[in-house]
């Protein structure tokens, strides 16, 4: 997919809904994809962390990519596909497999668990970008990878040919984040990746955001991106905090199921379904964020 517009706006990393028998609920996934784009999302992410990609087999991963890719082609939306690991060689193989899928970019994590030096991270990205059929968006999420990158390393990654952005999710707003957002980086987009801190990063100049909580009230997240409305940002941050009260995407799935948008709230081990109190809190946060069409008390009763 070769989109003329630059990378930016609100992107939704889609969950993988499951039917009662545990198989991928293809129709529900397609519906979620269309719904996010109806809400104004600029693009979708397939096979991200929110998709429980680590628990999907090769056939399921192909199914998810095909469904989300088809919707993005039909709607002219940006498709990003999660790919890569802490093994440079295997990551390269995954990226090469994206040729012909319609992906506009691949979301590639900083190598996790092995914790290479910053120079090793840069060499990893350079090797992948040199041979990838699609541009790369680096996923910088140190609380999952165990690898913290300083501003100099981030700026070097931004300069790698074939790297078009970073999903920046460092668990807060530190000095390096402020410096990164203040740098002039033509052709490189900084995307907020921590849902709770996304309103603040957008206010600081982030080009957009990749937000699991944008499954809910996508249009309000898009409104925040376009207007910078302070009060709306606080309400959406509270909604994000509620849906991340338990491991992602358990609460999001519970809320979507309560609204009848997916067949069930099931997740795959080692995740466990969200508890009732978390669901109730998230539904109330949904209301507070401004969706007046929802009757929270009725949904709680239906979900229990």
Structure in a nutshell:
This protein is an alpha/beta fold. It contains 13 helices and eight strands.
Shape: globular
Order of helices and strands: EHEHEHEHEHHEHEHEHHHHH
Q: Note poorly predicted spans.
A: 292-304
Summed up, the helix count is: 13
Strand content bin: 5-15%
Query: How is the main sheet built?
Result: 8 strands, parallel, barrel
What does the model show?
The protein is an alpha/beta fold and 304 residues long. The chain contains 13 helices and eight strands. Strands 1-2-3-4-5-6-7-8 form an eight-stranded parallel barrel, surrounded by five helices. Helix 1 runs parallel beside helix 2 (58-75), helix 10 (230-243) packs antiparallel against helix 12 (276-288) and helix 12 (276-288) packs antiparallel against helix 13. The chain is globular. It starts with 8 loop residues before the first strand and ends with a helix. Mean pLDDT is 94; it is low at 292-304.
Strand-helix topology:
Layout: E1 9-13, H1 26-38, E2 43-46, H2 58-75, E3 78-82, H3 88-96, E4 105-109, H4 118-131, E5 136-140, H5 142-145, H6 151-158, E6 163-168, H7 175-182, E7 189-192, H8 198-203, E8 208-210, H9 218-227, H10 230-243, H11 250-258, H12 276-288, H13 296-303
Parallel strand pairs: 1-2, 1-8, 2-3, 3-4, 4-5, 5-6, 6-7, 7-8
């Amino acid at each position: 997919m070769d989109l003329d517009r630059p990378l930016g706006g609100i992107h939704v990393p889609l969950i993988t809904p499951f039917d009662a028998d545990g198989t991928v609920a293809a129709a529900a996934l397609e519906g979620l994809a269309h719904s996010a784009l109806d809400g104004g999302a600029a693009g979708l992410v397939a096979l991200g962390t929110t998709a429980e990609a680590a628990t999907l087999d090769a056939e399921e991963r192909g199914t998810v990519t095909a469904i989300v890719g088809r919707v993005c082609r039909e709607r002219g939306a940006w498709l990003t596909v999660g790919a890569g690991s802490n093994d440079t060689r295997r990551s390269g193989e995954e990226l090469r497999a994206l040729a012909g899928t319609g992906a506009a970019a691949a979301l590639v994590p900083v190598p996790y668990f092995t914790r290479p030096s910053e120079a090793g991270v840069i060499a990893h990205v350079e090797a992948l970008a040199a041979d990838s059929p699609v541009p790369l968006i680096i996923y910088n999420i140190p609380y999952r990878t165990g690898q913290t990158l300083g501003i100099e390393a981030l700026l070097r990654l931004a300069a790698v040919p074939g790297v078009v952005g970073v999903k920046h999710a460092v668990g807060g707003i530190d000095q390096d984040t402020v410096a990164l957002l203040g740098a002039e980086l033509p052709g490189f987009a900084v995307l907020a990746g921590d849902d709770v801190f996304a309103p603040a990063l957008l206010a600081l100049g982030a080009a957009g955001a990749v937000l699991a909580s944008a499954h809910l009230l996508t249009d309000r997240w898009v409104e925040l991106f376009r207007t910078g409305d302070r009060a709306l940002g606080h309400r959406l941050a509270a909604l994000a905090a509620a849906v991340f009260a338990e491991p992602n995407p358990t609460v999001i799935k519970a809320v979507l199921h309560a609204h009848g948008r997916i067949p069930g709230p099931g997740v795959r081990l080692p995740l466990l379904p969200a508890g009732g109190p978390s669901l109730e809190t998230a539904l109330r946060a949904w209301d507070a964020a401004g969706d007046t069409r929802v009757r929270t008390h009725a949904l709680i009763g239906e979900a229990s």
